[in-house]
């Protein structure tokens, strides 16, 4: 089992003895002292192979020393015991790579059987620590080899043996740094893939949220208008029970037509909600524009509202589709709110503007001319909020508020490029 220490801190077993760069945490390990990672099958295989390599090198070195010396003496037995202990310490090299590498390097200067373990420790440091730490341990191993060959002169030339040992240490460091770089690359690619997946999911959620907001605005703009008309006509029938049969039939026909249209609008919105995400409904589907205001005003007049329209704009100049739809929604919201909150009040609609300046849409109603019923037409309270967002998306500004005569005014200034 292995644990790691927090980055930037020295190991508590050797406080103040080692420079900070030697104890830098490995990038591919958990960075919390409480994290314990269970040894995997791969770790077991690597540890067994490392132990066998270190033991094999140590045994070969000891055999050569015994063959060139005076047999298996007490010192050789001690050398063997120390070498076995150092080789077994390889099982803990992931937890204390620097400390065990230093201990193995110092031991290798005097004990022949610990040379293989010191080489494996050097490779481990190169894999799990930065280059300065690996280079420092490599230099220590080179110095240890020089001391060892001075105490135990080799059968060949001292220089040849020392150069060969130095090359082995350099190869171990280069190989370890290559493995480290490859691990870091894999970790980086995994992190990038995870981040890309997270960003893609975020973009999908944002697109879904925008679509929900668009559908909510359409549902409010369309259904609130239709259902408020239904409520007005139904109230007229309820309060005028003595109305002539012709008027009752006319109002009933209007209610039926309005209900049918509301159901059609609801069916279209539900169809949008049920559409597969891979085939979203196009934003440029047919939408009402300022040219449809006449029908909107006629519906309101048939519901008993007094509506006056003043159109001072240049009707020949075309409007951008988004601005055209937005202007229609402003008028629709103004009529709906007047019907809900100011029954019997006169409503005036003013359209003005020229290309290159701006299109101004103003919907104003006076104070309620009739008593507001105790159970008024319910509303979501977000109509003006959604309308303000719609006008902002079209590049305009929206102003709304009560007037001095107790009424309410709704004004939108929309861009009208030449």
Automatic annotation (TrEMBL):
It comes from the Bacteria. One of its GO terms (molecular function) is protein dimerization activity. It is an enzyme of class 2 (transferase). The keyword DNA damage does not apply. Its EC number is 2.7.13.3. Keywords: ATP-binding, Kinase, Membrane, Nucleotide-binding, Phosphoprotein, Transferase, Transmembrane, Transmembrane helix, Two-component regulatory system. The chain crosses the membrane at residues 44-62, 74-92, 98-124, 131-151, 157-179. The keyword Kinase applies. It catalyses: ATP + protein L-histidine = ADP + protein N-phospho-L-histidine. Pfam families: HisKA_3. Gene3D superfamilies: 1.20.5.1930, Histidine kinase-like ATPase, C-terminal domain. InterPro entries: HATPase_C_sf, Sensor_HK_TwoCompSys, Sig_transdc_His_kin_sub3_dim/P. GO terms for cellular component: membrane. Residues 211-277 form the Signal transduction histidine kinase subgroup 3 dimerisation and phosphoacceptor domain. This is histidine kinase. It comes from Phytoactinopolyspora mesophila.
